[in-house]
Write a structure and sequence with these properties.
CATH architecture of one domain: 3-Layer(aba) Sandwich
Structural class: alpha/beta
Protein name: Nucleotide sugar epimerase
Pfam families: Epimerase
Strand content: 15-25%
Oligomer: single chain
Helix content: 40-55%
Order of helices and strands: EHEHEHEHHEHEEHEEEHEEHEHHH
Distance between the termini: 39 Å
CATH topology of one domain: Rossmann fold
CATH class of one domain: Alpha Beta
Number of helices: 12
Keywords: NAD
CATH superfamily of one domain: NAD(P)-binding Rossmann-like Domain
Length: about 325
């Protein structure tokens, strides 16, 4: 395997996965539509860290446009596809559910069709821990996930099912990763850790949905990227959790951010959102057994690195509007 298409290459996880692939000697064909769901300054910053690599090529294209993507497949003849292009965000998916289905489900279908057409045997799909709502923890991949509580989760379930269909019918080798609350430097400004750090650094009160006792299996982005690249090995069809497997409360996260920024904050508690999950916790035995993977970065170290990145880039980050 030498050439890999990475969709969503300007995204938080996509840029890190691309960086990891380049480090391992792959040629990376990045695809991203550079939409403005959140401030594109962050996307351009991420891309700047990739464009210095001579084995990275970026196409500004949308996975919903199958003809544009077909040209890229035909020209580059990739060996594998890692599909990280997605509309993310549980709450926003309730405001605009249609675009979540067209990107997350239909966009995945387009890529699977092109893999079939061009003989690309390996496909890696990013999915989500949001599918486990209401299930017993720690979440195992074998649990039934037939009760998604947001359009975002439902669209990811649709993508997983379509991927299985193409494995069954056409023999595509597919690895589906269910990611657990990814965070780290250059993260998404609609996610809690980015928002909390920015608010604390600028002296704005924090808005917390719930009482802060909700737990998340926060997983550092470098660990997620490393695991995703490991998923390029032949697997047949597998769904695998990638999580830290050590949930922490939002309150603890805020305390760590206060410690590393050196600032105290005021917290405004709001009603817990109906589409949120109260807790997540990944069983990662499958990732350990099949990939030899487990997270290496604990929450204190990950928060410390993320805060430092925000400090180093504060000159332009302070102008970013949070969603």
């Amino acid at each position: 395997m030498k050439t890999v298409i990475v969709t969503g290459a300007a995204g938080f996880i996509g840029s890190k996965v691309s960086k990891e692939l380049l480090k391992q000697g792959y040629t990376v064909i990045g695809i991203d539509n550079l939409n403005d769901y959140y401030d594109v300054q962050i996307k351009y910053w991420r891309l700047a860290t990739l464009k210095e690599e001579n084995k990275f090529v970026l196409y500004t294209a949308d996975v919903e446009n199958i003809e544009a993507i077909r040209f890229i497949f035909k020209f580059h003849q990739p060996d594998a596809v890692i599909n990280l292009a997605a509309r993310a965000g549980v709450r926003y998916s309730m405001e605009n559910p249609h675009i979540y289905m067209t990107t997350n489900a239909h966009g995945t279908l387009n890529l699977l069709e092109l893999c079939k057409e061009f003989g690309v045997r390996k496909f890696v799909l990013a999915s989500t821990s949001s599918l486990y709502a209401g299930q017993e923890m720690p979440f195992k991949e074998e649990l039934p996930v037939n009760t998604p509580i947001s359009p975002y989760a439902a669209s990811k379930k649709a993508a997983e099912m379509m991927a299985y269909t193409y494995h069954y019918l056409y023999g595509l080798d597919i690895t589906v990763f269910r990611y657990f609350t990814v965070y780290g430097p250059a993260g998404r400004p609609d996610m809690s850790i980015f928002r909390f750090i920015k608010w604390i650094m600028e002296g704005t009160p924090l808005q917390v949905f719930g009482d802060g006792s909700q737990r998340r299996d926060f997983t550092y982005v470098d660990d997620i990227a490393r695991g995703t690249v490991l998923g390029l090995k032949p697997m047949g069809y597998e769904i695998i959790n990638l999580g830290n497997s050590n949930p922490d409360t939002l309150s603890k996260t805020i305390e760590l951010i206060e410690e590393y920024t050196g600032k105290k904050t005021e917290i405004q508690y709001k009603e817990f959102h109906k589409a949120d999950i109260s807790a997540t916790w990944a069983n990662i035995s499958k990732a350990q057994n099949l990939l030899g993977w487990q997270a290496k970065t604990n929450l204190p170290e990950g928060i410390k690195r993320t805060v430092q990145w925000m400090k180093d880039n504060w000159e332009w980050i302070q102008s970013i509007k949070l969603l």
